[in-house]
């Protein structure tokens, strides 16, 4: 099968942290004969926009990235070329695949062998250390692209590749059991609204949603949260959370907040033996928990970083069963600058998915 591949494409580039996003119509496309073994070329259908992309755009993380940079790491598209001499290729031309944050890893080191591929010293990160999905054609890696289940729409699938995998994996390692309580601060946001649904439908957990405003309240309750706490209205958040969970506090808290306070509070409201799942990636925030109470309450503080290939398979397969939906708005690639502005002002509800064709 031969697919015609253009020489140039549309792409959005970060040139420097203080200059505007550069939109190009003549960005080069890596041609099939230029692909190395193990690489594939994916024609993008669409791509989600994640807070990480904004960090890459602003350059405010303690982790260097390439420049100029094509950002983006929630891309769904179709494999249109595979590097010659690729051995044991798990995908074929025409397959619909996802390009996630972890673009590639060595698969041989201790971290990779243990399934902590995201901690591989040779990991390549989409839209950060290698060009990502804010272009029409993306070079990715056959070992790490995620097959998209047939009955999952491309736009819907996009946000599961980062937001979905992240919350799914954190809940998977939360040491909770069906019927346990989980607290989700920021439950009405991009990560939070998916976390409610995975908690309820994949793990059988009971959810306390924390966020603010009537619109988010309605969303959270409609997605399966049993209890709602408006952080702007509560006088004592820790007490309200404990009351909502029968007095003892929740078994787990999944926190993605940008400030350290939310992590500190979790140690206060978690029940003994509870787990604090840290999934946000603010550049500067610190966790300053009481060591005394962390020890006396036997609190587990768990950092959970996106997910490996298996987590991605599981998160997407569970989503394809039809009970978990991403609330997103669809925009063209040219809207990326406005989307970043909206994210900085906190006015983006749910996720934004950019259509690439
Ligand atoms: Zn992300
Ligand atoms: Zn490795």
Written overview of the protein:
The chain contains 11 helices and 18 strands. It is of the alpha/beta class and 357 residues long. α4 (163-172) packs across α10. The two termini are 21 Å apart. The model has no long low-confidence stretch (mean pLDDT 95). The structure holds zinc ion (2 copies). Residues 105-106, 108-109, 111-112, 120, 122 line the site of one zinc ion.
Uncertain parts = none
| Broad CATH class of the largest domain | Alpha Beta
Q: What characterizes the major β-sheet? A: 7 strands, mixed
Number of domains: 2
CATH topology of the largest domain: Quinone Oxidoreductase, Chain A, domain 1
Arithmetic mean of pLDDT: 95
Beta-strand portion reads 15-25%
Q: Terminal Cα separation, in Å?
A: 21 Å
CATH H-level name of the largest domain... which superfamily?
Medium-chain alcohol dehydrogenases, catalytic domain
> How many whole angstroms does the radius of gyration measure?
20 Å
The dominant shape is globular
Fraction in helix:
25-40%
State the total count of DSSP E strands. Answer: 18
| Coarse structural class | alpha/beta
CATH A-level architecture of the largest domain: Alpha-Beta Complex
SSE arrangement, N to C: EEEHEEEEHEEEHHEHEHEHEHEHEHEHE
């Amino acid at each position: 099968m031969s697919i015609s591949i253009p020489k140039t494409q549309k792409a959005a580039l970060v040139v420097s942290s203080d200059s505007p996003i550069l939109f190009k119509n003549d960005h080069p496309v890596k041609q099939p004969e230029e692909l190395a073994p193990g690489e594939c070329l994916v024609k993008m259908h669409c791509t989600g926009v994640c807070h990480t992309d904004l960090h890459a755009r602003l350059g405010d993380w303690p982790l260097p990235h390439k420049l100029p940079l094509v950002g983006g790491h929630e891309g769904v598209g179709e494999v249109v070329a595979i590097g010659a001499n690729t051995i044991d290729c798990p995908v074929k031309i025409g397959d619909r695949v996802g390009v996630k944050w972890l673009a590639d890893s060595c698969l041989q080191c201790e971290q990779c062998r243990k399934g902590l591929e995201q901690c591989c010293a040779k990991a390549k990160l989409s839209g950060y250390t290698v060009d990502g999905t804010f272009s029409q054609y993306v070079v990715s890696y056959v070992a790490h692209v995620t097959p998209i289940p047939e009955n999952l729409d491309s736009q819907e699938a996009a946000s599961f590749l980062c937001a979905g995998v992240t919350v799914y994996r954190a809940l998977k390692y939360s040491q909770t059991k069906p019927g346990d309580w989980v607290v989700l601060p920021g439950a009405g946001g991009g990560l939070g609204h998916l976390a409610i649904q995975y908690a309820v439908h994949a793990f059988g957990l009971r959810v306390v949603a924390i966020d603010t405003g009537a619109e988010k309240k309605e969303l959270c309750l409609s997605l399966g949260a049993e209890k709602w706490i408006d952080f702007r209205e509560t006088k004592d958040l820790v007490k309200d959370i404990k009351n909502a969970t029968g007095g003892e506090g929740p078994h787990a808290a999944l926190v993605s907040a940008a400030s350290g306070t939310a992590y500190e509070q979790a140690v206060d409201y978690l029940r003994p033996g509870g787990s604090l799942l840290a999934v946000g990636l603010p550049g500067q925030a610190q966790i300053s928990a009481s060591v005394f109470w962390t020890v006396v309450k036997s609190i587990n503080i768990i950092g959970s970083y996106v997910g490996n290939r298996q987590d991605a398979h599981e998160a997407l397969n569970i989503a394809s069963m039809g009970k978990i939906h991403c609330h997103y708005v669809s925009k063209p690639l040219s809207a990326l600058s406005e989307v970043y502005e909206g994210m900085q002002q906190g006015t983006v509800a749910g996720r934004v998915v950019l259509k690439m064709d």
